[in-house]
TrEMBL record:
Protein's recorded name: PepSY-associated TM helix domain-containing protein
UniProt keyword list: Membrane, Transmembrane, Transmembrane helix
Lineage summary: Bacteria, Pseudomonadati, Bacteroidota, Sphingobacteriia, Sphingobacteriales
Transmembrane segments: 20-44, 157-178, 209-229, 362-383
Keyword Transmembrane helix attached: yes
Lineage: superkingdom: Bacteria
Pfam family, one: PepSY_TM
Amino acid sequence: MREKKTKKGTSLFRKTNDWLHLWLGLASGIIVFIVSITGCIYTFQREIKDALEPWRFVEVEAQGFVPPSRLLDTAAKYMPGKKASGLTYSDATGAAAIGFVGKENGKRTFSAVFLNPYTGEYLRTQQVLGEGTFDFFRFVIDGHRALWLPYEIGRPIVGVATLIFVVLLITGLVMWWPKRWNKSNRDKSFKIKWSGRFKRVNYDLHNVLGFYSLLLALALAITGLVYSFTWFDKAVYFVASGGDIKEGHHHPHSDLANKDLEWTAATSPLDSAWYATLAQVDRVGGMYMTPYLKDEDDSYEILIYHNADSYYDQSAFFYDRYTLEPLEMDGSKFSEAKFADRLEMMNYDIHIGAIGGLPGKLLAFFISLICASLPITGFLVWWNKRK
């Protein structure tokens, strides 16, 4: 069946597609630019911070790390009256850090106390959030996630703009597709004519770079949408799992029947859980735990990152808070998880390119840069056609 043609010989489908690409692009262009350029900058935030903050590293020592209780005792001296919200060990060369969440004048604050993991020695306190503080990469990520608006307002706007960007990539592919695959059209579709006039070069930058970045730009957009919309996150899980419903955040619970048991071991329950976890793993690139439990049925959770430069290859270990009996949860270890759970663990690393190491980050950087350029070159294409 032939496509319905308009009077000018262009199909109704193509005219509708081009109209959507133009006006959706104009409507979302500024947001897409901000999200893309901030994502581009944030790609190497870890490497930049490592270079600018040498005090976050320590000399490797022959003895192992000190247990969590030693670090907590030291940090408490520098944050009197405050309770630690999280404890992080890095790899063999990184400092340990203990986080403290609080409020000042109704606003959330966050400080981290850095310690030598081999000796428990205090290194430095860094306040990330609070009055009079400015963290460049916090500023960048706030722009990326919420356009520097309150998150409850900015995140949905970013999410809708990202959905529109996915539509723009698809409609852009339709516009890019040559009517005839002769040499002249192939050159226009796959090559930038650098010797051409400004209008031609600008058009090629939009058309050709948009095509080459299409699949990876889609990957960045889709992994970003997972964070923007709960329904999208659940839909991805449903498709990836072949029809399973994604549960909310959950973890095994401690047995309240044992809550009156007296703890008699020489080491604290948290230290004992830490030692038990280290005995089960042979590769630690990082470690996170919540040192103080809130609810009576909470369990100790110790999260191991097996690689220092990525998060997806992780294993979560759970222990009953009263007996330290190991508890199990499906999908808690990457090596044993189903595909849908693995994909969920990989989402962040795919989004920033860390899934491919340094080459992957470089690729994500340039794809984000191209995505930031598309609203500009697209606007200029439209503006030049109006003259």
